[in-house]
Amino acid sequence: MMNPALVPVAFAAVAVAIGGAIVYASVSSEKKRRAALAQVALMLGFSYLDKVPDATLAGLGNFHLFRHGHSKSGRSLMEGKSGDTQVTLLDYQYTTGGGKDSHTYRQTVAIYRGAATGLPEFTLAPEHFWHRIGALFGYQDIDFEASAEFSKHYLLRGPDESAIRAAFGAEALGFFAQNPGWSVESFGGSLAVYRSAKRCKPEEIQSFLVDAANARRALVKAEW
After folding, report:
1. How many structural domains compose the chain?
2. Which of 87, 155, 168, 204 could cross-link 200 (Cys pair, CB 3.0–4.6 Å)?
């Protein structure tokens, strides 16, 4: 029978072993993910960088997503041509809060630089219950009588409401009404397209590229 005085030590040793195993499994999983994404980039004819340079991340700081939280990092940077448009793909993560109250968000992001020069600045994101409560107290949410489904699913904000309304024509409203869950940001003629807190599996990258391109196309149709 174990000496009672040694029980806490034994529990601590088990906890350390379990914690070490979890960390090892997580690191191993991330390495496998990056290796698989490198192969996807090769197959697509895209360039690949394992770690996103700090200067590249800093250059994305005008998008709302990249201004959130702390401990920001980017991995698996892929760049190439999708259809007739240049696109940058990356895994991006950031953390909010601290200690036991911290939460880390991870998502796959498509950036279309200079590919939406006719669009005004805006942020489009899935609408949640607290947004509807906020709207009662003046929190901006641009809705459209022409598409109740779009207005139900999405929160749309930006400094020039009339320009945003002009940009969201029937095709854009129809696409997003039928495809809830997207986040799209427009700034300086570039677009960021992603699903908040959702990273694509390596085998999902191609379909994500198609869907992101369709989201972009719905918004810039008038320019094509």
Report:
1. 1
2. 204
Residue 2, in any domain of the structure = no
Picking from 34, 70, 65, 39, the residue whose alpha carbon sits closest to that of residue 52 is 34
Domain range enclosing 65: 46-223
CA atoms within 13 A on the CB side of 56: 18
Residues in the chain: 224
The residues pairing with 104 across neighbouring beta strands, listed in sequence order, are 95
Q: Identify whether 1 is part of a domain.
A: no
The span from the CA of 18 to the CA of 81, in Å, is 44
Residues 6+ apart with CB under 8 A from 140: 157, 161
Residue 24 falls within a domain, yes or no? no
Which tens digit of pLDDT belongs to each residue from 30-67? Answer: 999 999 999 999 999 999 999 999 999 999 989 999 99
Terminal CA-CA length for the chain: 78
What does the DSSP assignment read for 70-112? EEEEEEEEEEEEETTEEEEEEEEEEEES-GGG-EEEEEEEEEE
- Confidence at 5, pLDDT banded by 50, 70, 90: low
Among the listed residues 193, 156, 191, the one whose alpha carbon sits nearest the alpha carbon of residue 177? 156
pTM, entire model: 0.83
Instruction: Name the DSSP letter for residue 146.
Output: T
